[in-house]
Amino acid sequence: MLKLYGYWRSSAAYRVRIACALKGLEYENISVNLINNGGEQHLPAYGVLNPNHLVPTLQDGDLILNQSLAIIEYLDEAYPDRPLLPDEPTARAKVRAMAHNIAIDCHPLNNLRVLKYLTVELGVDDGQKARWYRHWVKTAFAGFELQLEQTSGLFCVGDVVSMADVCLVPQVYNAERFNVPMQEYPLLNGIVRRCRQMTSFAEAAPENQPDAVV
Amino acid sequence: MLKLYGYWRSSAAYRVRIACALKGLEYENISVNLINNGGEQHLPAYGVLNPNHLVPTLQDGDLILNQSLAIIEYLDEAYPDRPLLPDEPTARAKVRAMAHNIAIDCHPLNNLRVLKYLTVELGVDDGQKARWYRHWVKTAFAGFELQLEQTSGLFCVGDVVSMADVCLVPQVYNAERFNVPMQEYPLLNGIVRRCRQMTSFAEAAPENQPDAVV
What we know:
The structure is a homodimer.
Chain A: E1 2-6, H1 11-23, E2 27-31, H2 44-49, E3 57-60, E4 63-66, H3 68-78, H4 89-103, H5 112-120, H6 126-151, H7 163-177, H8 186-196, H9 199-204
């Protein structure tokens, strides 16, 4: 069985959980607590699996794989039922670009280790940290909303759920945690609403994970 | 003909240039000067092509595509000669994970707009900014070097040049610009040396672009 090392609130792990749920793939969910004991991702035993000391990590037989989007693309190729990328090259490209708009241009700036660096190393106060967080989300979502005018139907790219939606929903979860104003993104909000009505997205949500603290 | 909107020093554009050179794809190189006039990427006309106001953007007939890795994967699917990803799913996964280790975990933290935010909005001084830069590169390269022990041959994944090498070389170019100490990464350095001996990597290098200021 697939093993997924993740954490309930990690939005990168959340992406992989959604992907597995959409594809009907069962997995053993192994919690790596990013907070307790200074962060279990820093333990040497976890470093053997993931030298970057980040979540998620997927284990599939002999394959040990890090990076959420590499994991999702792998699952889509190795288990092709219920694809998360369309067949046609330009549509595939659009899905990847929209996924990367979130996973590359937005999320890496706002994850736990970066916020910690701002506080500990740069002495940034809570107000500045919140502004930093909102700035990068708003910048990304503003561009995303404009691109949705070209690409979206019921979901980010056309009318079929894809890897782009898989990235968007966890980022919106994060944005809501940090009180980012969301009213300027009507297309984005509509898509997230539709996704959240799907069982697969609900099952994968942070609050529904065994290691959730709510 | 393909049109590539980029900038000589943008490492995301540099990736796409290397990919095109390796695949033997000709393109029209359109410079978007990220420095002059407050940054030409912010011009409304460019925003029509790329609502994120970042480089690169690829135009291929009717397709307008942003995100360097989405562009490279598109080129590899639409122009399959001289592939940048292997055929076998686990090897493909490793290439993507190694590419994302650079493109997701390292580069977004250190690009121009982020360094500008640190200075202008957070009042970070030059010494702190240099430490920030080096911290994220060193963190990424340390994990990368450990992963290379498992994945590398002559190049990042086995003995064939791939999208992982295409991401690594521009990141090393950046690291050298910011005087990141490099002696702790012997496998990484060996791969970069081999890449730089290839004509395709040399042709794509920043200093060899028409808009270079050296």
